User: Which sequence fits this backbone?
């Protein structure tokens, strides 16, 4: 196979390619920024597009050079905005007669306690003033205003963005800043340069004429048929281009919207209820025994203000009977004495089932299909799989003849629409359902538990006059989200990793 001659290659060049070659004709290589200017491109994207076409034809190389940079860390940005602690100490003293007792500095709003320590260390090192003992007190006294120190100059240089450490920043200042924790951070920049290959140089030496090419087809060009005679600019879909930084909903919000749509399509209506509720609704009305371990302080976040919430006495009395002896529901209850004071305690809801039962109490007449997606709160230590605040996807369906197969069918359909084909059910226990099940989905590598479900017990439904069977479920949102987004740590959903957020699809 003979490779095409330089002249043949030249005939096939597009205008942007020719502009690159002409710009490189003399120097053979240019940094991308200079190429943009020399060939009058609109920006780096356009120049890179042309360059990658040329590279594909063997006419140039795109060199990438990673330049290590030094920039400001979190602490550094704060210092750049407010000044180094010792400089702030100096300003503080200036405004307070030039001296102050050490013990007063901690109270000054200008510093945190840690910063007083840091300020003093550097104060001494830089000779910003005196420290002397006056009685039991140590007094800090400011000298004459010190000129900006090298670290302050370096801070100023770095304020507008990361720089090359060797050449762009005062070395002494950099050394000083490096000795403070969190002030500096390393970064990098990718510098691109375009270099002609030997073949490219031969082509570039030929006479190349740049003619007007059509990059955008207009209705006129199409209607008049003029497009047939005009050179059209080809596209290269593989051209590296900057990712547009557009605003978009958080992935979790998108998932919530998707779940909303699924339940709406299945004929469910959304309800919303409060975060702060009485123990009565969160637990008693759901037949959770008053000595249930989950009620203990380690699980439930009880409130100090308000400490209690009003609950209708007649309803509490009715539920008290159910707990004590069944109250005519056919149950024997839990036995013992029911404590109405316990019922009044205010708490942050531990599950969204509280919203379900309150709604059901107000609308005992079926049929009913409702759902909610809401935040719940538990006293959990945060780790890779636990958060003290998370979401549940909750719902009930009630109608005459509603039964367990219908419940499983609804959940099966819900998860199917989210893309999970394989489910399995495991017997479980909740005080308010019978039977009770846990739903697990197949993740492709293992089974993962995603929530609970069951049919409300008569102890829960009969006191509120609900006659039809109530199918109920409460599913985890965050675990589902982790599966969907391939996250290993639940915290990644809430502590923003901007790079990850930017990389998420728009829709
Ligand atoms: N409330 C239960 C939980 O928080 C879930 C559940 C809801 C179970 C409804 C059964 C019926 O885990």
Assistant:
């Amino acid at each position: 196979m003979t490779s095409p001659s330089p002249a043949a290659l030249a005939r096939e060049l597009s205008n942007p390619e020719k502009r690159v070659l002409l710009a490189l004709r003399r120097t053979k290589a240019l940094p991308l920024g200079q190429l943009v200017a020399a060939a009058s491109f609109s920006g780096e994207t356009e120049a890179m597009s042309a360059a990658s076409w040329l590279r594909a034809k063997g006419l140039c190389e795109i060199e990438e050079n990673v330049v290590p940079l030094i920039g400001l860390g979190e602490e550094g940005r704060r210092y750049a905005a407010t000044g180094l602690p010792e400089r702030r100490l100096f300003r503080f003293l200036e405004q307070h007669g030039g001296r102050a007792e050490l013990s007063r500095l901690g109270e000054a709003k200008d510093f945190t306690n840690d910063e007083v320590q840091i300020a003093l260390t550097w104060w001494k090192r830089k000779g910003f003033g005196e420290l002397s003992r006056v009685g039991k007190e140590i007094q800090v006294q400011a000298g004459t205003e010190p000129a900006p120190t090298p670290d302050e100059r370096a801070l100023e240089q770095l304020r507008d963005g990361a720089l090359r450490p060797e050449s762009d920043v005062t070395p002494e200042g950099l050394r000083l800043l490096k000795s403070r924790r969190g002030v500096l951070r390393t970064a990098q920049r990718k510098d691109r340069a375009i270099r002609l290959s030997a073949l490219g140089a031969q082509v570039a030496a030929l006479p190349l004429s740049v003619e007007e090419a059509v990059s955008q087809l207009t209705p006129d060009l199409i209607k008049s048929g003029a497009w047939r005679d005009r050179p059209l600019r080809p596209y290269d879909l593989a051209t590296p281009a900057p990712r547009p930084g557009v605003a978009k909903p958080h992935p979790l919000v998108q998932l919530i919207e998707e779940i909303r749509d699924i339940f709406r399509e299945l004929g469910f209506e959304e309800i919303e209820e409060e975060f702060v509720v009485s123990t009565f609704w969160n637990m008693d009305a759901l037949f959770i025994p008053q000595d249930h371990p989950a009620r203990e302080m380690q699980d439930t976040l009880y409130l100090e203000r308000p400490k209690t919430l009003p609950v209708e006495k007649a309803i509490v009395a009715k539920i008290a009977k159910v707990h004590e002896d069944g109250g005519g529901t056919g149950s024997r209850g839990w036995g013992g004495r029911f404590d109405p004071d316990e019922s009044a305690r205010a708490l942050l809801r531990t599950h969204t089932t509280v919203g379900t039962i309150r709604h059901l109490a107000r609308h005992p007449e079926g049929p009913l299909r409702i759902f909610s997606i809401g935040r719940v709160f538990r006293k959990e230590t945060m780790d890779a799989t636990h958060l003290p605040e998370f979401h549940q996807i909750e719902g009930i369906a009630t109608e005459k003849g509603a039964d367990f197969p219908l419940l499983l069918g609804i959940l099966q359909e819900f998860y199917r629409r989210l893309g999970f084909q394989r489910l399995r059910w495991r017997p479980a226990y909740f005080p308010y359902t019978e039977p009770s099940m846990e739903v697990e989905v197949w993740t492709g590598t293992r089974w993962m538990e995603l929530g609970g479900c069951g049919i409300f017990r008569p102890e829960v439904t009969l006191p509120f006059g609900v006659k039809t069977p109530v199918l109920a479920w409460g599913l985890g949102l965050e675990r589902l989200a982790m599966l969907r987004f391939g996250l290993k740590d639940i915290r990644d959903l809430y502590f923003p990793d901007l790079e990850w957020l930017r990389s998420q699809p728009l829709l």
In short: The chain has a mean pLDDT of 91. The pocket of phenylalanine is lined by residues 351, 353, 430, 433, 452-454, 472-474 (CB under 6 Å). The longest strand covers residues 60-72. The first helix runs from residue 6 to 11.
